[in-house]
Amino acid sequence: QTAREMIQEIKCRRDISIEQLEYLLTTENKDCLEMLREEAVQTAQKIYGNQVFIRGLIEFTNYCKNDCYYCGIRRSNHCADRYRLTKEEILSCTDTGYKLGFRTFVLQGGEDPYFTDERICELVSEIRQKHPDCAITLSIGEKSKESYQRYFDAGADRYLLRHETANGTHYRRLHPDELSLEHRKQCLWDLKEIGYQVGCGFMVGSPGQTTETLYEDLQFIRKLMPHMVGIGPFIPQKDTPFAREPAGTMEQTLRLLSIIRLIHPHVLLPATTALGTIHPKGRELGIQSGANVVMPNLSPVDVRDKYKLYDNKICTGDEAAECRFCMENRMKSIGYQVVVSRGDYI
Ligand code: 5AD
Ligand code: FES
């Protein structure tokens, strides 16, 4: 099979074999890699044109009851400088964001018991009332189906919960025993059943990841058919058990973005902050590999550098407006237009 035939086959079947995956992740054949990227970009453009959607990310708490080995805000990290935003501070972020043209807000935080269902619902319904034309995305971890239903009824419409890896053994390498892959997957199915637009995803190059585990990730994506898939390189954080593990690479992340675009053409696929962190042009290259979403930060500048999932995170000193216009210019520079809309799945 030639490289061209392989890429056409993946595109037509919307599936990939483990051998094809192995080849695409390891080949140094420049023509093949170029073809992969071009096919992914064409696929995205056929559906979404040259538009890139922006989401305003509000990191509203870095308290977390979990202890994931990779994450800088894990409960055992006593170096983390903890903060939580008040409801007023969060609403002021969405106001600022609205004026800057954001029509989607992503409320992301650690699993912080202070934010009870009641507090989350109150927050969501106030944002919903103030901005009826906006999409409200939650990214606050594993909850019961009842809780997810309550947030949904309060006005949340999307939920991001990366599955992290679809392989049970790999999942246990990344998390303490108190967390389980089965429960995490169940959460994603529950969210979907309730009617959320759902996003799963994983880190590229996390310790213990192999072609086999990535293959399982792709098969899980094919089965779940999420509206969004978030992937970015693993980046070690110095106060975690994975401090000395090597980071994932930009090259692997870009290849996987293209592959995901080919097997799931309509998916909303962000060029993540982590990708922008490992390379100054990471986000642009992500878009040029098939991504179609960027998520600039709207969190207040005085807490930005505290939401440290990994080291050297970008944009920690920039105001919301700076990131907004920076992003617009970055996208313009590669021929894309940032759009002011909810940016729904087509
Ligand atoms: N490097 C890259 N991504 C990370 N995340 C958490 N820690 C790291 C890290 N060290 C990702 C996880 C999580 C998302 C919010 O951030 O995939 O789901
Ligand atoms: Fe934040 Fe460029 S996107 S400064």
Automatic annotation (TrEMBL):
S-adenosyl-L-methionine binds at E164, R184. The keyword Iron-sulfur applies. Residues 50-272 form the Radical SAM core domain. (3R)-3-methyl-D-ornithine binds at S139. It holds the Pfam family Radical_SAM. Gene3D superfamilies: Aldolase class I. The keyword Iron applies. Its cofactor is [2Fe-2S] cluster; [4Fe-4S] cluster. [4Fe-4S] cluster binds at C64, C68, C71. One of its GO terms (molecular function) is 4 iron, 4 sulfur cluster binding. One of its GO terms (biological process) is sulfur compound biosynthetic process. InterPro entries: Aldolase_TIM, BATS_dom, Elp3/MiaA/NifB-like_rSAM, FeFe-hyd_HydE_rSAM, HydE/PylB-like, rSAM, rSAM_sf. Transmembrane segments: none annotated. It comes from the Bacteria. Binds 1 [4Fe-4S] cluster. The cluster is coordinated with 3 cysteines and an exchangeable S-adenosyl-L-methionine. Keywords: 4Fe-4S, Iron, Iron-sulfur, Metal-binding, S-adenosyl-L-methionine. NCBIfam families: rSAM_HydE. This is [FeFe] hydrogenase H-cluster radical SAM maturase HydE. The gene is hydE.
